[in-house]
């Protein structure tokens, strides 16, 4: 296990891309002195603007939380997915390398095919949907264009500042007698507030790929059962989606101290979310 010193927030010039998203807003709390740019302020698919922005700001750390994360939408909008999640990372990585900045980027459990029950950082990738393929392209573009990177693979995000599974379940529970949720896809739910806090530690570690999630493995049905009462299990075959999902996408963290269990994080979320 690799240990490092936690970054002293506010002492290092930091740029957050995608600051308006669910994770981006939590990152903005952890890095309050960072330059924070939303999608409307910087389109990361615009190579010239990415280059000029990073050259002008000259950050020591660039945290990229910008992404196209609609898994089914990626099937319908593959060009957009590959531009945002894939090609844009070449522009960002090159600019970071030129500025001497550390690049922190978030990837996904969906870079794996789900054929084994858990995945380590060194396991072979094999995405089975357009979202995973576009995110894997982003990873490759980072590795090929800068040496100083931290790729953080994570999974099943929920947080205060965006559309997520928890809020979907709560809303469906109010309008449906029973909510059917698949019980044959397994992963690790992750609270964006925890992930954002953990990011400051990852920055202080060596370059590479990190698997960072809350601990505890569950199915989507088990996750839903911790949120609402009127939920029933179903199979993936009973609930087909446009994008194929991996059966198992459990990420194993071998490089840092483990984060708390997802149930503990969910409890905090439920207590603090606006009613």
Topology:
Layout (H helix, E strand, L loop, with lengths): L13 E4 L4 H9 L4 E3 L9 H11 L3 E4 L6 H6 L1 H22 L2 E7 L21 H16 L3 E6 L2 E2 L6 H11 L3 E4 L3 E2 L2 E2 H12 L4 E4 L6 E2 H6 L5 E4 L27 H11 L3
Parallel strand pairs: 1-2, 1-3, 3-4, 4-5, 5-10, 6-9, 7-12
Antiparallel strand pairs: 8-11
Helix pairs in contact: 1-7, 2-4, 4-5
Please give a handful of descriptors for the protein shown.
disordered N terminus; globular; Rossmann fold; two-stranded parallel sheet; alpha/beta; single chain; about 15% strand; about 280 residues; six-stranded parallel beta sheet
Summarize the structure.
The chain is an alpha/beta fold and 275 residues long. Helices cover 38% and strands 16% of the residues.
Structure explained in plain terms:
- The structure is a single chain.
- By secondary structure, the protein is an alpha/beta fold.
- The chain has a domain at 14-163 and 190-215 and 250-259: 3-Layer(aba) Sandwich (Rossmann fold).
- It contains nine helices and twelve strands.
- It has helices spanning 22-30, 47-57, 71-76, 78-99, 130-145, 165-175, 192-203, 220-225, 262-272, and strands at residues 14-17, 35-37, 61-64, 102-108, 149-154, 157-158, 179-182, 186-187, 190-191, 208-211, 218-219, 231-234.
- The strands form four sheets. Strands 2-1-3-4-5-10 form a six-stranded parallel beta sheet, with helices on both faces. The protein has a two-stranded parallel sheet with strand order 6-9.
- Helix 1 (22-30) links the parallel strand 1 (14-17) and strand 2.
- Helix 2 packs parallel to helix 4 (78-99) and helix 4 (78-99) packs parallel to helix 5.
- It is globular and about 55 Å long.
